[in-house]
Design goal:
Length: about 450
């Protein structure tokens, strides 16, 4: 077979683990020195060699291709410092080495993505604060339902992102556990100090079982699942941006840099960036499916299948980071068309629920009130009228309990600001949400 080494190798994708591989190796060698498993002079020479490789990698130098990143670094180390470099691998295996590398990598990615979620959430909160007086229709089933303020809608996404932050940080509890010292699967007879190595690498603790240590990829699946939910939320918001920027809605304007033109229709600007974000969610879901499929039914301990765990981990993280960067910039540029959103509240009889509530306050059972308002709405449709344009005489045809004070209850601004229940859409409630969200930073 001509391409056997290429087929079983992983260097083409795992080379991005170079930095964390060296980080883990330095800590391992420091532990070997401390426990006197290798002479201090040899250990210091190894560490100096590893640091020189790390320095060159930071400058853009590329390691020669080998079967995997671990062999590439060890071979380069031996080339630089001689056979003593081979002592680096004492009391460990590639099995626990790669598991440690991947945990270090995912840990770093979690912290990076958390910071990006923070930045995105701040933009949402700032945008909500700026648009506290923008009134728009709220929808269910994509049908006009009740008036809300735009800030309330934006903060719904800010709370989704809050959950995303909590989830991905919670993932650290399972990710930041050190497999190093598990060796191939059974541990080692060398008198190593795993707690010392864990401390050097800032892991919470060593893993409790060496078999589980080399084979556990639960943290990878959990990490990609968390990224998948982030993708769901970004895709939902992208759909809102696409809908709101359409000619039919015309609620918002986004900067032209986030749109593109048509090849034959010069009048068009298409929300391509939002569409790509919406589409990339499927890619992340695919990475999760790939990860779960790799894990499913594997015998315990290390199997070569597990080298395929890295592409979905890398791809999901890269995709979500790119989408977060773009959607943060889109939302920072987005402006609401206040007059347009307010005028849209005239459609769809958004005051209907308020009339039912009004009648309920008059001691009419809500279900009866609901039926009365249905008849009023049908009357409006038949006579091409809106609820705020009906006369009091017309209203009294449906219920004698309706008085002139009804009109203040069906004023759109009053409707919004009356929703003072905890978590509601009133300006007061939304400002409380903003204050609470800001306290999380």
């Amino acid at each position: 077979m001509k391409n056997f080494q290429q087929f079983i190798g992983s260097f083409s994708f795992d080379q991005r683990l170079g930095e964390v591989d060296i980080e883990g190796s330095i800590a391992h060698v420091e532990m070997l020195i401390k426990t006197k498993i290798i002479p201090s002079a040899d250990g210091k020479k190894i560490i100096a060699g590893l640091k020189s490789i790390l320095k060159d990698l930071a400058k853009g130098w590329k390691l020669p291709m080998e079967e995997d990143i671990h062999f590439a670094i060890e071979k380069e180390l031996i080339r630089r410092i001689g056979p003593v470099g081979g002592k680096m691998h004492t009391a460990r295996s590639r099995n626990d080495q790669v598991a440690t590398d991947l945990r270090l990598y995912v840990r770093n990615e979690i912290l990076t993505i958390f910071d990006m979620l923070n930045a995105f959430q701040k933009v949402l909160i700032d945008k909500a604060e700026k648009n506290i007086d923008v009134i728009m229709p709220g929808y269910t089933h994509l049908q006009p339902a009740q008036p809300i303020i735009a800030s309330h809608h934006l903060l719904a996404y800010a709370w989704m992102i809050q959950r995303d932050k909590e989830r991905i940080i919670d993932c650290l509890k399972r990710t930041n556990v050190m497999p190093l010292g598990s060796a191939a699967l059974a541990g080692t007879s060398f008198k190593i100090d795993r707690n010392y190595t864990a401390k050097l690498l800032e892991f919470f603790r060593p893993c409790e079982n060496s078999l589980d240590g080399v084979s556990d990829r639960d943290f990878c699946a959990e990490y990609i699942f968390d990224l998948s939910l982030i993708s769901v939320h970004l895709s939902k918001l992208a759909e809102e941006i696409i809908t709101w920027s359409s000619v039919e809605f015309n609620f918002i304007h986004i900067d032209d840099m986030f749109t593109s033109g048509s090849s034959i229709m010069p009048q068009k600007r298409n929300p391509d960036t939002a569409e790509v974000i919406r589409g990339k969610a499927g890619r992340v879901f695919g990475d999760l499916t790939a990860m779960l499929t790799i894990m499913k039914g594997l015998p315990i301990a290390y199997n070569r299948d597990l080298q395929e765990d890295k592409p979905p981990v890398f791809d999901a993280g890269d995709t979500v980071k790119l989408c977060l960067e773009v959607i943060t910039d889109i939302m920072a540029s987005l402006t609401f068309k206040k007059d347009r959103t307010y005028k849209s509240t005239e459609k769809g009889f958004l005051q209907a629920t308020e009339i039912a509530d009004y009648l309920a306050r008059k001691n009419i059972p809500f279900r009866t009130a609901h039926g009365i308002v249905q008849k009023i709405v049908h009357y409006c449709i038949d006579n091409n009228k809106t609820l705020d344009k009906l006369s009091i005489e017309e209203y009294k045809k449906f219920s004698p309990e309706i008085e002139n004070d009804l009109y203040k209850y069906i004023d759109v601004k009053n409707i919004v600001n009356a929703k003072t229940s905890y978590g509601g859409t009133s300006k007061k409630s939304v400002l409380q949400q903003i204050k609470k969200l800001r306290s999380n930073f």
